[in-house]
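## tool: complex_structure
## caller: assistant
## args:
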Amino acid sequence: MYEEENIESEFLKRHKTNPFRTPDHYFDTIEDRIMRGIEQPMITKAKSGRIIRFLKPALGLAASLSIVYLLVNYSMNSPIVNTGTKTETAVSSPSDLLDNYTLNLTSIDDNTLASAIFSDETSNIAATNPDEILAFLASNLNDVEIYSEIQN
Amino acid sequence: MTNDQQILDNLKDPSTKELAFRYLISKYKERLYWHIRKITMNHDDTDDVLQNTFIKIWNGIDSFRAESSLFTWLYRIATNESITFLNQRKRKMMSSLTDENEYLIGNLQSDTYFDGDEWQMLLQKAIAILPEKQRIVFNMKYFDEIKYEEMSEILGTSVGALKASYHHAVKKVEEYVKSNETRIDFQ
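## result:
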């Protein structure tokens, strides 16, 4: 359908020349410029590769030391010692016990704490016979009498 | 080292790769330059695109499977790089096809390396206002005289569609020239 042989006008046939030009000696140096353009990213890549290669052992050593430090630190601070739970009580330091005690006290509310403190006294008072109390108060002993009573 | 197969063989060998690539540049630099120049219509833009094209070729040479000829592959990369370059410019500075044509005409008028007369300037302006595909087909057929079959491989378009594109491009160019030739001052 579209035959190209006869579609070009006389005008197109007449002006079939390239009107563009290049700067002088443009093509003389193009190989060098292109090769420089190719090598530039390669050099950058190689440099970064060299830095990583140089840092790799140092980073590995630092990571190993960090792991060892964390493991030692963890085992020193951990409440569970390798010898087991029974020996843990024996090796616990006084400060550990104090910490545990403090922790228990802080975990109890005021009412519970008050009732825990006074519960024994209340029960003792309730268990004591009022007649015995009265007899004790009525005896009205002085210090010398009390001392002699004790000695007897 | 004369034919493309020898160049390709040497490019696969690390010890001769750089030398072979230099040879490939020297063999194709002018043809690719003029192909790109007719698309971008400006020397400085062409210089950038040509460098990018050869860098792409260097990076992709190991994956070249020789399913098409080396020449076809190089032209395809150069064409794609040129189109990508113009699209980037379009995104940065322009918004429509008309503006792209104006950009190309501006490129043409500001190019200090244009040596043509008024008739040739008129012809280049007529080419600049063509749609992108028609412009590329017109340049490849009219100036470079590339066969439709080869053009089909480079552009990935059927021969029939290429013939139609060229036909429409010629008609548009002639119409533009006829309507503007009276403005040319004959001396």
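## assistant note: Chain A has two domains: 10-78, 109-152. Confidence is low (pLDDT under 50) at residues 83-89 of chain A. Handing back to user.
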